[in-house]
Predict the structure.
Amino acid sequence: MMNTQNTSISIAVVQGNFTVGDLQANADRVISAIEQARAAGADLLLTPELALSGYPPEDLLLRPDFYRACARETGRIVAASKGICVVLGHPAEADEGYFNAASVIIDGRLETTYHKHLLPNYEVFDEERYFEAGLVPCVFELKGTRFGVTICADLWEAAPAALARAAGAQAILSLNASPFHMNKQQRRHQVLRDRVGENGLPILYCNMVGGQDELVFDGASFAINADGGLAYRSASFEERLDVVRFEDGRWVSDVRTEPRPLEAEVYEALKWGVRDYLGKNRFPGVIIGLSGGVDSALTLAIAVDALGADRVRAVMMPSPYTAQMSLDDSREMVRRLGVRYDEIPIESAMKVFADLLAPQFKGLPEDTTEENLQSRIRGMILMALSNKTGAIVLTTGNKSEMATGYATLYGDMAGGFAVLKDLYKTFVYRLSSWRNGVGGVIPQNIIDRPPSAELKPGQKDQDSLPPYEVLDAIIEAYMERDESPREIIAAGFPENDVRRTVAMLKRNEYKRRQAPVGIRVTQRGFGRDWRYPITSRYQDEF
Ligand SMILES: Nc1ncnc2c1ncn2[C@@H]1O[C@H](COP(=O)(O)OP(=O)(O)OC[C@H]2O[C@@H]([n+]3cccc(C(=O)O)c3)[C@H](O)[C@@H]2O)[C@@H](O)[C@H]1O
Ligand SMILES: Nc1ncnc2c1ncn2[C@@H]1O[C@H](COP(=O)(O)OP(=O)(O)OP(=O)(O)O)[C@@H](O)[C@H]1O
Ligand SMILES: NC(=O)CC[C@H](N)C(=O)O
């Protein structure tokens, strides 16, 4: 092993927000980070995984022209790397196929390119669809120290780090695009501590930050020393360039950000999800149907925190079933937040539809059809405002509703982006209270009153659904942990509630397929990591 005594290597970690497909802008971002790193006296710049393309580029990775464009921009970065070493994440074409790659560029010259060994194909990841697996470790020398390179999932198993060590690595540089979900940071630290425990190599972990459709990357880059100690911890949900030194075989850094409470992390994830979805898709603003209920209230609070009040517009559309309390609370909330607010009563539209349909519905009793019409009238109004202004509609449905189909197709499901889609109703309350704790924007009455769709007189959610604490726990067990109804009942949940909840969950797959994309914050959301058949006769184990 090389002697690392008395060496000090300075590494700039760019925790950047890269945009999928914006190759030129991403390359420019890396080049500006190179300039910053040079100005800070750094020897090396470490980027996240696939920084050049953004993550995940999905089926762009099937296009040969995409790889050609990546190669052009990589060339530009190589030329801009005089006097410094850069470890750059990018998609790469080689003789053997397409790879998720990390190139080591030293003083303006491409030294070597590593190909990711372990291609994740679980949860939200589809890398086996796009890439060949690399087989060879990558170790390079800088100022007398030999660094091994790995890419994200490589470190979630033992082999790649062991190979790097066998090839002479004294420390590992890890490029990552590791999306957020609740408690993910603790999980990452544990996984990397396991690796350090196996082979004793200190690891520097650089993660991406920012929103990309349903994913949000939290950054929170970090370093672990050979003794398992955390030597560096960057802020989560911040674009940053931190300098970490490698001295006498150890990572050293002044950056040790304190972890935040779970609610704060989730709130940041939702804010970044909204801000980047709007920003990266270049929408001027958002429109939200404000009902006086907690879901639209929290959605509004997040939108204002993410975008600023001037890009957010709230519309209250009272019907004859809307309680005065709902109007009062909505008015109070928009007064606190300072957003544009309009009231558009829907009674006249309800009457027009009732009259139009009267001959067809003659002799038939009123049912959810009439309730859904109200929801659809509101959806139509919001979409008309969207068409006219270019702002998109944020839908307000939460995970409990997405699971049970408790939402109207082309009604309250009409819209462009679903902010709370992966938050259980119980967590909606928890997060609303937390947000009020750092500044009271949601009138307390909205949090305290029993939830109601207000689509018929005296309606309450709990008349048609199990209590939310029970419902959410059953959904989590069935949907996130793949437990069978038999196991859930054995854990103590009432059989009737389990049967109803599972039946609703399965029956409503068709609705979820038509639902807008929304931000994933749990370990399994109703998005890329939930791919159930709509047409299915599978009988669960009871
Ligand atoms: N497998 C399948 N594949 C394709 N399409 C299928 C289908 N099964 C039904 N459908 C279609 O879907 C229709 C039923 O769906 P939909 O029209 O949405 O109506 P539906 O699910 O019957 O009713 C909406 C439910 O959501 C509740 N809701 C509405 C609005 C807000 C809230 C809230 O508190 O947040 C709750 C409401 O109380 C009611 O229980 C059927 O009429 C049929 O056209
Ligand atoms: N009176 C209304 N004015 C404006 N929008 C409404 C109104 N009623 C419902 N909506 C829209 O439809 C969504 C679903 O509403 P609903 O009240 O039926 O269910 P909810 O899940 O309890 O939501 P919330 O907690 O926001 O009320 C609301 O979040 C809101 O965006
Ligand atoms: N991009 C990746 O390889 C990510 C895989 C890894 N399990 C993570 O979420 O951190």
Summary: The pocket of glutamine (ligand 3) is lined by residues 49, 120, 125, 152-153, 156, 177-178 (CB under 6 Å). The chain has two domains: 8-254, 264-461. The mean pLDDT is 97. The first strand starts at residue 8 and ends at 15.
